[in-house]
Amino acid sequence: MKFSQRQGITPLPANLRPESMPDELRNVLWNDFLVWFSSQSDILRLLQAVWHTYWNKPVDEIPIYPGYPENDYTNAVEIIRQYFFKAKWHEVYDFLEFFIETDYTGQELGKSVNKDLAIKLAAYRVINQQIVPITNEHEISALEEVLANKDKFSHAASHIATAISHLSNKQNPDYRNSIKESISAVESVAKIICDDDQATLAQALLKLKNSSKLHGALSDGYTKLYAYTSDANGIRHALMNEPNLTIDDAKYFLIICTAFVNYLKALA
To answer: How would you write 145-208 as a 3-class SS string?
Structure first.
C-alpha cells in the first residue's frame, strides 16, 4: 500500500467515476463489439442501421457499394472504429446500447459488455438491455468528501482509501479486506464521537443511541450490519467465511459506510 493511499491522499480511481472512460475500458468494449459484430449473419443490415438510424447519414456512403469488393466490410468497420475511439464516454455507451437493444442478438453483446464493465470496475451495468449507472454522482461526492478530510476524522479517510485500493486492484482485488476497511471507517468515527477509543462499533453505536445523538432504529440497523461482519469479540470473520464475495458486495459496503461516515461527522 502506497503512503498516499494509506493517508487518503490518492484520488478516487478514475474508473469509479460515472463519466470515466479509461483506455483499457474503451479497448475491451470495442473488442466486445467487434467480436459480436463479426459473428452476425447480416452485417450489411447492421451497417445500414448505423448509417441510417444512428448517424442519420445516406446509406450509399457506406463503403460497400460499387467500387468496393462485395462483402468486404473492412473500410466500413474502420469508419466505425475511428468514431468509437474518438467518441465521448457517454457516446460510447449510446453506441453500444443501440446494438444491445437490437432484436434478440443484442443480448449476446449485452452479456459481454456487462461482464467487462464489472471486471473494469466501471460505474455502469447492462440491465434489461440498457446501460444503467450503479454508482451515481451523489455516491461519488460522498466518497470524495471522506477522502478529502484532514481533520480529526482523517483515520476514516485512510480506511476508505484503503478499501478503494483493495477494491480497484485489477491484478488481485481483495473484497474481504475492502469490506473490513469500509466498516473500520465507520468504527473510527463512532469511537471519536462517543469519546471511547476502546469501543467496538456496536458499543459505540449503543452509546450514541443512549445519548440520543443517533436515532435508535438507525443505530440498531448498523449494529446488525456490523454483526454480519463480526463475531461477538469484534473480530471480523462471519462475512469473511463467505466463499463467494464479489465486487458488488465490496462496493455496497464502500458506499453505505462512506455515507454513514459523513452522517456521523455531521452529528459531531
So the answer is: HHHCCCCCCHHHHHHHHHHHHHHHCCCCCCHHHHHHHHHHHHHHHHHHHHCCCCCCHHHHHHHH
Q: Is the CB of residue 75 less than 8 Å from the CB of residue 61?
A: no
Integer Cα distance of 202 and 19 in angstroms:
37
Give the CA count within 13 Å in the CB-facing half-sphere of 128: 2
Of 124, 126, 33, 49, the residue nearest 85 (C-alpha) = 33
Residue type at position 250? A
Tell me the pLDDT tens digit for each residue of 13-51: 666 677 778 898 999 999 999 999 999 888 888 999 999
Q: Which of 172, 150, 186 is nearest to 258 (CA)?
A: 186
Q: Which residues have C-beta within 8 Å of that of residue 192, sequence separation ≥ 6?
A: 152, 153, 268
| pTM to 2 decimal places | 0.62
User: Distance (Å, rounded) from C-alpha 179 to C-alpha 182?
Assistant: 5
